[in-house]
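Standup notes
- HV: blocked on the assembly model, inputs below
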Amino acid sequence: MSTITPETHIDSGHNDDPSSNYLTSSSGFMSWAFTLDHKRIGVMYLVGIFASFFLGGVLALLLRLHLMVPNGLFGDWISLDNYNQLFTLHGAVMTFLFIIPSVPAALGNFVLPLMVGAKDVAFPRMNLASFHLWVFGAIFFLIALVTTGLDTGWTFYTPYSIETQTNVIAATIGAFILGFSSIFTGLNFIVTVNTMRPPGMTWFKMPLFMWAIYATAIIQILATPVLGITLLLLMGERILGIGIFDPSMGGDPVLFQHFFWFYSHPAVYIMILPAMGIISELMSVYSRKPIFGYTFIAYSSIAIALLGFLVWGHHMFVSGQSPMAAVIFSGLTFSVSIPSAIKVFNWTATMYKGNINLATPMCYALSFIFLFTIGGLTGLFLGALATDVHLHDTYFVVAHFHYVMMGGTVIAFVGGLYHWWPKMFGVMYNEFFGRLFCAVVFFGFNLTFLPQFVMGSRGMPRRYATYVEEYQIYHVLSTIGALMLGVGMVGAVVVLVVSLFKGRKAPANPWGAATLEWTCTSPPPYYNFEHAPHVDSPYDYSGLKYDAQIGGYVKDPNAPKPAADHH
Amino acid sequence: MLSILADTMFFPPERSTVAGSVDGLFDFIYYLSLFFFVLIIGFMVYFVLKYYQRPGHTEMPSPSHNETLEITWSVIPSILVGVIFFFGFTGYLNVREAPENAYEIQVVASKWNWVFKYPNGAESSDLHIPVDRDVKFLLQSQDVLHSFYIPAFRIKMDCVPGRYTSTWARATQTTGSGLDESAHEPLRLFCAEYCGQQHSVMHRKVFVHETAEFDQWAEKAANILENNPPEVAGEILFKRKGCAQCHSVTGDNSAKYPGPPLNEQWGKERQVLPRGSSSPITVTMDENYVRQSIRQPNSEIVVGRKPGMTVFTPQLLKDEEITAIIAYLKSIK
């Protein structure tokens, strides 16, 4: 059960030279585009996701520059219509193309089978199909972008999305296809975790990243079909005029919101849960301490996944839904805040009496705790009904979800990328520049979004192309912060890219981590492991010793056997 | 000191009876959050400084879980969020249910216009309300979702096509005195739900009057044709009926205005396409042309423009109102 017999891969023409790895085992466009190797699929996702992130980021900077002055910095060059398309595409590209697949599909694909000590995911072909679907979905988004644009906001609220002249159909087809991509990834991970764990890796000896990915996968396969149905209904509404959401035909526009958020609120947890999984790994490895309260963290992932299905109505407190519904959704919303709080406390406690290595991934993990705490606490203002009425659809909300989505997920994603980069590409990056740009990102981020809390609570509505003068100071600060954040993000990527050419060769285990992916060479060989790995406790660092000669950690043969092995 | 910071930094002025309790809850959550933020980040920074990797320093044994601690830090936040939930919920019921006998104003939102209709038949494009009186806003939308938002009152409610929603407020202070609008410092009213192209310019002013003055204002507003010279009445109607959304009166010919500009047009000739014809004819902008363009806007389309204007039937716009609008169009330079 622990290993799969190597099946015939399309790219089976790889060479068996022991010095070759998954990057060099075969070459040519076809050997990548049709590979069944989870590592190559992960790398291709990574490239696609960075292209999307870049596109979404450029759109964001254009928006922020435009908002420097009340009537728009670019004059007629960005008209009201252009602005509406810019913010819509920024949101849609970032959500559907970047942030939802970022951690599970790119890092998860690469790391999860290695963590399980397997040579691939359970269904390699489905994994490849998932990537191809992502590419098709992205193409439809680009079609919407270059034809008439899209100006509905990423939420596609009816009835506006029924009557706008922009290319809603192309974008919804894109999102529909991306939904399948997401379902395939989730299904694959669930089966992989259920059936391919090696002997000795019981549920409560799994690394917490696996718990997080597993919880995410449950949401992906249960919630995403609802989005698919909703988008089909929206297409039916536009093309056939079926009238289910259109009030002029007796339909109900609020029904669309219920359908939409039934997927899109759990989708928030598709974004943040895997990020939390990364942070659990990083806090433990770089503090050299077993994660504090493993069981609470593991259960809290599942609790978040399940409770996340019950809170969608909190997006609709002022939509005209019944006060009773609003009260119930508000109560449930607070229930989901508890497992998140527990995780933050546990991560912090993990550092106690540790030996904290402030390497770049740890700097990102500490940034994450800072930013995610702000994101989580500001959620309290929005979950409480009376304050939400005032803050709903203002910049307070914009700031809140950027703290969670970007300060949370994106920061964790970059931290995880730095952490696993030596494993993925076999090179070490420059620590000084890695940390420097982490600091630039951190300050730029806070300068961008802290002022937005203030202007939002002062009444500045979101999605405004122009605004009244009293809000200008906050917009100016926010734009300066965004430029700094842009520089930091580009710098962080440049550090990684430069390492591909100039980086020193990475040892198998540069950080002294105890999870299985660090037991194979860096980068991993085509079949991941030369021998079936031996499963130890994922957070026991006592058996690992730093070897200055190779610049990494090796198993200490004299170390006492970890106590956890006895049961 | 901190409370001064929270009060001045985060809020627009408090101008309704519910604003104080909303801000009170906001403050409560704010200080609670600040406490937990300082606690968590304080511990984090302390641990980093105390335990960072340096020569001679190693990790030390410590328990990897502690049930008492973990149950404590699950239960205490649960109780606190329970308290926040409770105050949020009581405050919310307060803004949802208008008190009985409230003065009722109908609010009609459309792309991209607000019309406020008062019980005596008056209509306005900026909102006028009496001070110290419960005012219920009955909201409706003629097309897509809009959202009625007055930050100073801390109220917001979506206007949903095909159904009525409502909210209410009781203003605690006037915005000025007299019927002269320039003597007021009006509050802001925003559209908070994205509604398309001109969403960000769908904001209006809110005037709060003394009761007697408000009655005077409403009386005057109900009879604009009688109480104003024709050009002035025409200008009010031009804005209130939504003409100003599509027709510039400053000569702005950009795509912001789908209709042709209307200043300095009186008596001039223009090229129009009669319906179903492909060859333009020349017409003169006079009383009959304007009246026809309002009653049957799609019969003759100015060359280069697309049909799309609302057909103004006599129910929507009376003949004497058109006469006033004509007087206004004659007057604008």
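- HV (later): unblocked. Chain A has 15 helices and two strands. The first strand of chain A starts at residue 544 and ends at 547.
- Next: hand off to the docking folks.
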